[in-house]
Amino acid sequence: MDNDSTVFIGLDVHKDSIAVARVGSATRDPVIDVATIGTQQYAIERMLAQLAGHGPLQFVYEAGPCGYWLHRYLTGKGQRCLVAAPSLVPRRPGDRIKTDRRDARNLALGCAPARSPRCTSRALTRKRSAMWCAPGNKPNATSPRANSG
Hints:
This protein is α/β, with parallel strands linked by helices. It has one domain: Nucleotidyltransferase, domain 5, CATH 3.30.420. It has helices at residues 41-51, 69-76, 100-111, 121-133, 144-147; strands at residues 7-13, 18-24, 32-37, 57-62, 80-84. The radius of gyration is 18 Å and the shape is globular.
């Protein structure tokens, strides 16, 4: 893998563990399950040190009940990080098997532009803002809900 290509890191975050998978930006790059690590800072630091030699890193994980502490931590370390809404992560119909490793792999694959050109930070932002700002979803001043407060 070239040092100038971005490496996409998918993280499946839970209270006690984080499953980590990585994939390069080229279509020929394989998906590699890196490890399952703890949520302590030293474990994340060790993971960052292990992945540092592979090129620029782009992290992605699903928003969930664990909050945004990992996003703040990674961006504080100078890394790029996306937090994807679970409803916007593409899923194949009939794919009901959910494991931590598979979720991390799917997040990493979904963010690599050569494999999924629709999943960029701009596309996610546009889709999210379109969803929240659609005329039917946005309460206006004449709706009964807006006047009931």
